[in-house]
Amino acid sequence: MKDTRCPICLKEFWQQECVLDHIRHGRTPCKSQVLVRGPVLSEREADEMDLALLPYFRTLHRRGLRRHALEAPCVRAHGPLVPKIHGPSLMFQGSLQPHA
Q: Is-contact 6 22, C-beta < 8 A?
């Protein structure tokens, strides 16, 4: 993610680590929609962003906070929501039976 906003539900998290946690571990359709739409960053771009954020993460660690600690509450940004994509890769979500 180049942004601090989820591209699917438009929630603004103010920190890239928080939006990545939202997509990785969230119980929202955001993870499956991001997976269907393809990678947002190349591996090289992600590594460069991690190196750029390293001083910020060190500051959080010194304050006793983790990388994904919220400093401000997340809010829904203005704008239209992205339409959901339905495809064969979304047919099996946690069960062995296709959705009817």
A: yes
Phi, psi of 96 (to 5 degrees): -95, -5
Q: In whole angstroms, give the CA distance from residue 42 to residue 45.
A: 5
Give the model confidence (pLDDT) of 15-25 as tens digits.
Answer: 888 888 888 88
Q: Where are the alpha helices (DSSP H) in 1-100?
A: 16-25, 30-37, 43-62
pTM over 0.90: no
How would you label 15-50 residue by residue, b for 16+ Cβ within 10 Å and e otherwise? bbbbbbebbeeeeeebebbbeeeeeeeeeeebeeee
Supply 72's token pair.
């401000």
Predicted confidence (pLDDT) per residue in 33-91, tens digit: 888 887 677 888 888 888 888 888 888 889 898 877 777 778 888 777 777 776 655 44
